[in-house]
Amino acid sequence: MSDWKFMVRQLVKNPLSLAGIIILFIFAFIAIFAPLIAPPPEGHLDNYMIPRDGYSATPKLPSEEHIFGTTEGQYDIFYGVIWGTRSAFHVGLLVIGIVLVVGIVLGSLAGYFGGVIDEIIMRITDVFLAFPALILAMAIVAALGPSLKSVMIALCVVSWPSYARLIRGDILQVREEDYIEASRGIGASNFRVVMRHALPNSIYPTLVMASLDIGAVVLAAAALSFLGLGAPEGYADWGQLTSFARNWIVGPSGDPFRYWFAVTIPGLFILFFVLAWNLLGDAFRDILDPRLARR
Amino acid sequence: MENIITIRDLTVRFYTYEGVVHAIDGLNLDIRQGETLGIVGETGSGKTMTALAILRLIPYPGRIESGSIAFFDRDLHSEIELLKLSEDKMRSIRGNKISMVFQEPGAALNPVYTIGDQISEVFLLHQRRELGKRAKEQVDRSLRDGDGFAAGMKRPFWRWQRRLYDKIAQESNLFEPRFLSHVPFFRRLLWRLKDESNLLTVDMLKDVEIPDAARVAIHYPHELSGGMKQRAVIAMALACSPELLIADEPTTSLDVTIQAQMLELFRRIKVEKGASVLFITHNLGVASEVCDRVAVMYAGSLCEVASVEELFLNPSHPYTKALLDAVPMPGKQLQTIPGQLADPLNPPTGCRFHPRCPSAKPVCQQEKAKLKEINKDHMVACHLF
Q1: Which of B51, B133, B230, B277 has its CA 20 to 30 Å from the CA of residue B294?
Q2: Chain A / chain B CB contacts < 8 angstroms
Q3: For residue A293, what pLDDT is reported?
């Protein structure tokens, strides 16, 4: 309990991490109350599909009706970014959650048992790490057919190897400790030794990496969406909103900033979301670093 | 008198990239019921590997190549061949019938759990039935004495708990309690097991002379001194009243006054619990203090075994003599043993000690000497005898 108190106090004491927490709370608030902030219109079938107001390609400036204006194809930007917050949390947390489980299981198997198991798992990670991550992800999404689900699958596939590696390295280090041998000496099973003695001593670097990576995953998902490989057209997703604005980054000659809102607003949402996770991850790293004196 | 451990022709090898390391080479050793057997020898002579081989915890890439280790179980009154046991059976022996104290008390305790948590883990692993029985009595007391509204609300849960503990007391590994212990919330039905094991833990800590045991139990290892940590480690090893306690250089990292206390503690334990002790040390002074018999090891094989007085008054193997000469004494020129410890990758042929032996004969290069009894209770492996 005192550990938790200590952690919270450290998080709040540091202005940067406090900023990260506040931004994240705002995003969480937006995601939770999306139906109240941007209520879907009557008779709307899928809340995650952005309602459109006509089919004209030219974006419309912000107005009473569309606070942030509309983007190409008359999709409402306000509705898109609000409901897109849900997509961002969905993608980031789910991908990191799956990757953590897979990485921890495979990494601790490899690190703890060593030998042939280690060789096999590590050579598999080598194969995955040999491809440029984003290009491999693109290939996977293209093969599975563009959808948010295949984006998540692709991001899981490209990011589990680094987690498996990281946890394996830490387990390798911890497994040579005397207390691991001592716990085997009192008759604990391998499962128990790993779960109760090895993992609690080696998991912190992985957790830090995970909190830093949530932002990176959202960024990668947005990049895939921007390339047209993400959510179906009209799905509330920040990457897709920036993709709609691709042709309108520079306005007509004589008025280059005419359609600034089309790309800036979804871009700012992505920026702040990723920034918040990075600030929080940095703070976690400082708090969980065992080399820093704690009390 | 029965031997508690009978080691015959034990061979342990490590298959490393540089070659095969002969860690233990045809070792024959007996540990008698109720005695303290000391193993002395230089670093790398295979003392620790002998201990780990008994527990079957030889680390990868090491392997027990051949030989047998027979363990006489006092409770079952029968002999068990440890090297042929299944891993499950072996786990029920480790920490329960044979337990080990490690050299570095700071390193042998997990930094993320309190002392009490770590000791009670031993009870939870090996004495679930006993804990179940005690917990059942606890529930029975609550059922009998509890009255009023709160007790009335809790009564159904107590009944359920009683049934669970009853099951555990009869058979420690039944499905229902095992399943529930992994389910959040329902896990709390089993809290009395932990409670009982904490009580036993505090008793155990008192037993190893830790003052204010209940308070020490909730401390983390880094909050305790070296001597306290070593006491906690000893308490952990003694938790299930083992028949054999293996102590791997338990005093090496402690300062001299604490060492003396620890040796006293070991002596008392041996008398009170009737356990046999395998005491590994490279300190001959310590060995002469606590041991009944002493075995001298060199490069993975046994040189000499004798009772303490016999070994120190009448050392016979040239290595034992050299070792005793190498003990620093005031006013005496320190004698070192010429040469280097035998290379375990390419051990010398014949007797391992012959390149450094002052009285080596031609036969020493060719043949390994067998253990011979040269006196009552005094065995030597040397061609001189």
Answers
A1: B230
A2: 63
A3: 47
